[in-house]
Design a protein that fits this description.
Largest sheet: 3 strands, antiparallel
Strand order of the largest sheet: 2-1-3
CATH topology of the largest domain: minor pseudopilin epsh fold
Number of domains: 2
Structural class: mainly alpha
Number of helices: 8
CATH class of the largest domain: Alpha Beta
Strand content: 5-15%
Length: about 210
């Protein structure tokens, strides 16, 4: 079964003024679609085409050397963006709600401290990549960043591993049309789109998958 581009769960202009309509069209319809197409090309006729995207990015070491880079880059791009659309929503933002709120307090001492650390990770990621909040091996939340389309599920390959609860895309295609070189402004504005309900679901899934 080929990997498929998931539809946006809201209208292209639904996240304005924080993320503009033109960026969403390009980001979803062009960039994410290209990752899916390239991933299908790289995995066609192999057992990896039948894996879920989660299983595939967790098992990149199984992919032959001649295909691994393409699967890493495009599989990571597909996983990361599929997550990204889901953890945003119109009218989002505000203070964390549910179990993730307590986890943030326990791990960072409060939401403001998390935002500061997360935004710093996003600004500090040289070139293209992602900033993440993960569940680490100790069961606590941590902020990490990864280059390119790597993500924390890529055990043994990514710089930082754990379960990715949520992340923000700091590739220029995610923000340049509206914010140009003002990545810190984009990172701060992005918090107004956050879908805490979806993040709580991912947090609970991550705790279960890590035996928490």
């Amino acid at each position: 079964m080929p990997f498929e581009l998931p539809p946006l769960p809201y209208a292209y202009d639904a996240l304005t003024p924080y993320i503009d309509e033109e960026t969403m069209h390009l980001h979803h319809d062009k960039h994410h679609a290209a990752y899916v197409n390239n991933l299908n090309t790289a995995t066609e006729g192999t057992p990896f085409a039948n894996m879920s995207i989660d299983e595939l990015v967790r098992n990149l070491n199984m992919v032959p050397d001649d295909k691994r880079t393409a699967v890493r880059n495009n599989g990571g791009g597909h996983y990361n963006h599929s997550m990204f659309w889901e953890i945003m929503r119109p009218g989002g933002g505000g203070e964390p709600q549910g179990q993730i709120a307590q986890a943030i307090n326990d791990s960072f001492g409060g939401f403001d401290a998390l935002k500061t650390e997360f935004n710093k990770a996003g600004v500090g990621r040289f070139g293209s990549g992602w900033a993440w909040v993960i569940i680490g091996s100790d069961g606590r939340l941590a902020v990490v960043s990864t280059p390119n389309q790597d993500n924390p599920l890529m055990s043994g390959i990514a710089e930082s591993t754990g379960y990715p609860v949520f992340g923000n895309d700091v590739w220029e295609h995610a923000y340049y049309l509206k914010y140009q070189n003002r990545r810190p402004e984009y990172l701060e504005a992005w918090w107004n789109t956050v879908n805490w309900d979806a993040i709580n679901e991912r947090y609970n899934t991550g705790r279960t998958s890590m035996g928490g």
